[in-house]
Amino acid sequence: MNPRADHSALLEVFARERKRLLGVLxxxxxxxxxxxxxxxxxxxxxxERQRQGCVPEGDCTGLLYxxxxxxxxxxxxxxxxxxxxxxxxxxxxxxxxxPSSERLVAAREQLESLMSVLGREPARTRQIFLLNRVxxxxxxxxxxxxxxxxxxxxxxxxxxxxxxxxxRESQ
Length: 171
Hints:
By secondary structure, this protein is mainly α.
């Protein structure tokens, strides 16, 4: 397998499909700028996977779209987690008072910090964590959706929760 040929094919596919891919992503995320970021991230992820020899030979158009779609959905889940976290922190304030803008800013900063730490974890770990915490799916539902064993889902959740616990202790 010639790595240069593979990268050349990926570049051609990305150049050919870019406009259509951005349209698909824009419909998912609702933003041109975020669609651009997701498309770029998908391309880089495939580029790296090809470099490591993890992308099968042949047409990678479908793989590009699937990767981009999954990244877009992860991005949306992350936004939902952030908003839910901010709402929870804000509701911890005195219920008779509306939360101060300082409190909201602090909550958003904390959430960004947590999401940054979770962002260093493997994509599957983040996806399982978000499916459980944001979409409120059970471990069995996540296992079925992702084609994994419940045991593996449990292990990935333990990993994500350890990261969250370490982050919390460092705050």
